[in-house]
Amino acid sequence: MLYIPQRCVQEGIQLRFEQNYRNVCDLLLSVTRSRTLPKGLQLHGHIIKLGFQIIPLVSHYLINFYSKTQLPIDSQRVFNETNIKSSTTWSSIISSFAQNELPILALEYFKRMVDYGVRPDDHIFPSATKASAILSNYNVGRSVHCLALKTGYGFDVFVASSVVDMYAKCGKIQDARNMFDEMPMRNVVSWSGMIYGYAQLGEHEEALWLFKQALFEKLEVNDFTFTSVIRVCGNTTLLGLGQQLHGLSLKLSFDSSSFIGSALISMYSKCGIIKPAYQIFQETPIKNLGMWNAMLIACAQHSHTNKAFELFQEMESSGMKPNFITFLCTLYACSHSGLVEKGKYYFNLMKHYKIEPTDQHYASMVDIFGRANKLDEALSIIKEMPIKRTECVWGALLTGCRLHGNTELAAYAADKVFELGPVSSGMHVLLSNAYASVGRYEEAARARKMLRDTGVKKETGLSWVEEGNMVHTFAAGDRRHLRSKEIYEKLEDLEDEMVEAGYVADTSYVLREVGGEEKSMAIRYHSERLAIAFALITFKDKRPIRVMKNLRICGDCHTAIKFMSKCCGRVIIVRDNNRFHRFEDGKCSCSDYW
What we know:
Layout: H1 6-34, H2 37-50, H3 56-68, H4 72-81, H5 87-99, H6 103-116, H7 124-135, H8 138-150, H9 157-169, H10 173-182, H11 188-200, H12 204-216, H13 223-235, H14 239-251, H15 258-270, H16 275-283, H17 289-301, H18 305-317, H19 324-335, H20 340-352, H21 359-371, H22 375-383, H23 391-404, H24 407-419, H25 425-436, H26 441-453, E1 462-467, E2 470-475, H27 484-501, H28 516-524, H29 527-538, E3 545-549, H30 555-568, E4 572-575, E5 580-584, E6 587-588
Helix pairs in contact: 1-2, 1-3, 3-4, 3-5, 4-5, 5-6, 5-7, 6-7, 7-8, 7-9, 8-9, 9-10, 9-11, 10-11, 11-12, 11-13, 12-13, 13-14, 13-15, 14-15, 15-16, 15-17, 17-18, 17-19, 18-19, 19-20, 19-21, 20-21, 21-22, 21-23, 22-23, 23-24, 23-25, 24-25, 25-26, 27-29, 27-30
C-alpha cells in the first residue's frame, strides 16, 4: 500500500484551493467587464458551493459585479451575508448605491461604516460626495468634505475632485471654485466638474474659458467634459464653435459616445440645423435613452412631427423603455401640430409604462387642448388633476385663453395663479397681454403694475445673429449698431417689396393703447426684423439666415417674415422660446400653428 505523507496531502489541497480561488476571481472580473448577468449568476452559485463567499475579496468582486449589472439590491444582499467586512467591502457597497442612483442608501451605509469604526479612504469619500451631489444636499456634502479634511484626505486628487463636482452640482459654484483653486493637482474630474457647474448656472463664458485652459494645459478631456461645453454652445447658439468641438471630438475618437452624441444633436437642433442631428443619431452605434430623447425634442421643435412619432415606435421596437422626458417630447410634438387625439393617446400610454404624469405632462395636455380652442376640456383636465396645480399648468391655460381671446377664463386662471404665491414675470405678462389683445388696456395696465410692485422686471425681447466669432444682438427699435443706418434702409426697401406682394401690417399685436400710425411704426422695427435686415446686408451668398430670439415671435412678424423669405428668395430660420420656424418661399414649417 502506497503511503502519502500528510504534509503532501495538505499541500495538494492548498494548491487546488489557490487555483480555484484565482480562477473564481478571474472569472468574476471577466463577467463584470462584459456585464454578463446569466454567467455571473451561475458563478455566484459555484462560489457558494465552494464556500468562497466568506473571503472578503470575493465578496468585493461579487458586490461590484451586481453593481455593474445595475442590481444594487443584490449587492446589498451579498454585503449583508459577508461576515468579515473590510474597508474594501464597505467601499464596494457604498459605490454600488451611489453609481445606481440610490444616494440615501449610500449615505446611510457611509454613516454605518463610520460608526463601525472603519476609516474612510480615497475610494469611499468620492462615493459619499457623489451621493450628496445626486441629492443636491449641500449640508451633507459639506459634512463629508469636513470629515475628509479631518482624516487627511481633503487634498487627495480623487477626493478633492469629487468635492469640486459635488459643490458645482449643488449650485455652490464659489465653494467649488475655491476648492478647485486650492488643489495642488487636478484631474479630468475636477476640471469637468467646474466646467459643468458654470454651464449649469449660465456662466457660459467662464465655462468656455476653463475648457480652453484645460486644453492649453494638455489635459486629456473625457466625454463628460465635451458634453458640458457642447451644451454651452447649444444654449448660446454658437454654431461655429460647436462645429469646431464636433470636429475635435471626432479627432479624439469620441464619436461613438452616446453622451456626446445627444449633446451634439441638441446643439445642432438649437442652432436651427437638424440635418447634422439626424446624421449623428444614425451614425452612433449604441444609443442611450438621452440620445433618443434629444432626437425626439429636436423633431418636435423643427415641426418634424411624423418623424417624432416614427422615432418613438423605433425606440419601442429596439427595447428601449421610454421615461417621463420621452413622453414630454411626444406631447410637445402633438401640441405644436394641433394633434389632440395623438396627444390623448400618448398621455394614456404612460400608464402602460407605469409612469405617473407630472405637472409638466398635465400642462402639455392643457396646452394641446388650449391651442385647439378646446378650453373647457383644458379646464376639466386641470380640475381633475390628482396632483397639485402649479404655475406651468395655469400658464398653459392662460396661453390658450390669449390665443382665442377668452379673457374671462384668463382672469379666472390668473386668480388661481396668484393664489399660489410669488409667480414669474412671464405669468404677469401673459395676463397683461390677454387683456390688451382685446382692448382692455386698464386691466392690462393693472397687471403690469402688479408686476412692477413685486419688483420683478419683464424680460427684454432680443434677437441675435452669429457672424464668424461675433454675435450681433438687437432689441426693438434698436439704433445702437454700427451699421444701423444700412439696416433700417434695407428694412424699408424690403417692406416696400412686401407691401407690393400683399403684406398688410396687423397692428393688433401692438399691446398698447396708442394711435394707428404709432402702432404701425412700433411693429415695423421688432428685434427679429432688424436681425434679418442685418443678415441680408452681411451675408450676400444664399446661405440660410439663422436668427435666435429669447421670446415668442409675434403674429405680425411671423406673417412679415413669410413675405421677406419670398421677396428676397432666402431661407430664414427663426428660433423663438418655443420652437423653430423655417421660412421659405412665403411659407413656414409650422403651418401657422404655433
